[in-house]
Amino acid sequence: MRQTKCFVALVVGVVGLSACERSGEAEVNRAIQDLNVVDETNLNDVMLTVGDPGEAVNYFTRAVENDPGRIDLQRGLAKSLVRADRPQEASAAWERVLSTPGAGDEDRVDYADALIRSNRWEDAESVLDGIPPTHETYRRYRLEAMVADSNEEWQDADTFYDIAAGLTTTPAGVLNNWGYSKLTRGDAAGAERLFLEAIRNDRTMFTAKNNLMLARGAQRNYDLPVVPMSQTERAQLLHTLGLTAIKQNDVAIGRGLLQEAIDTHPQHFEEAVRSLRALEANVAN
Fold first, then answer.
1. pLDDT digits 0-9 by tens, 43-55
2. Which residue from 135, 179, 172 is spatially nearest to 157, judged by alpha carbons?
3. Which of 22, 35, 76, 200 could form a disulfide with 60 if both were Cys (CB 3.0 to 4.6 A apart)?
4. What percent of the chain has pLDDT over 70?
5. Where in the chain is the domain with CATH 1.25.40?
6. What digits encode the pLDDT tens for the residues 242-256?
7. What are phi and psi of 224, to 5 degrees?
8. Mean pLDDT computed over 62-74
9. Do you know which Gene3D superfamilies this protein is assigned to (predicted)?
10. How many Cα atoms sit within 13 Å of 104 on the Cβ side?
């Protein structure tokens, strides 16, 4: 009897030790899994920001094939397709995201963005109309403004651009777009004010500086504004201003601006040289 009790105690002890070992292994496995998730999340973020767009598409395509139910991987694939300038495929990928449990309004905003990039303006408008007004984000209203622009609904466009600019700490991009919208409507003075505001928010935005030349030239104002610019940028802006003057039939002023652009550029300014030669050949004929 004593031997039996000892045997039972021994068995219980072994079983207990075995259970402890299994519990410890499970904890280690869980820790490793958690670590893998963290590593994978970091890799996903890298692929979506600094990774090569084509490599990111391949990465997320494989990841989705291995685990198609994970919405974060579906989103990663859709976003990487946008970065790779494959908007039609991105639109289809966002459709799959929206059919996955856990999809939300921001996913619909991303879907609308991909549709606009695919030139599917009516579909984008329909998607945006389906997002509740309580979802107030910069990206949503920037897209709303672009759609209103495409429909030539200028009052709505102005409202949406204004809202979008107020919802971001970096409004230069949307201010530049708003300015270009004004310019296409023929409101060069309003466009000029918005381009200047964009430059005040981002001194490095050359697109806004160049658009500013178009707005000033449309008003036959051919003086360079006081905005931050490098010597190379100055030459490029003079070139744009010169072409704008020629378009306005102010040919002599345009010729002088093109020559000034060539003289200002720190290197050989081939584009301005070709423009000046073309102008002189046209005048000679």
1. 777 778 767 889 9
2. 179
3. 76
4. 84
5. 35-103, 105-164
6. 999 999 999 999 999
7. -70, 135
8. 93
9. Tetratricopeptide repeat domain
10. 5
Read off φ and ψ for residue 221, nearest 5 degrees. -105, 105
User: Cα(243)–Cα(143) distance, rounded to whole angstroms?
Assistant: 31
Contacts 24+ apart (CB under 8 A), 141-147: 141/167, 142/174, 142/177, 143/109, 143/112, 143/113, 143/116, 145/174, 145/177, 145/178, 145/181, 146/116, 146/177, 147/116, 147/121
Calpha distance 211→258 (Å, rounded): 17
Integer Cα distance of 45 and 197 in angstroms: 33
What's the chain's average pLDDT?
Answer: 87
pLDDT in tens, 187-210: 999 999 999 999 999 999 999 999
Structure tokens that stand for 6 in this block:
């000892």
Q: What is the distance between the alpha carbons of residues 89 and 92, in angstroms, rounded to a whole number? A: 5
CATH of domain 105-164: 1.25.40
Question: Quick check: 161 pLDDT over 70?
Answer: yes
- DSSP per-residue letters across 18-31: HHHHHHHHHHHHHH
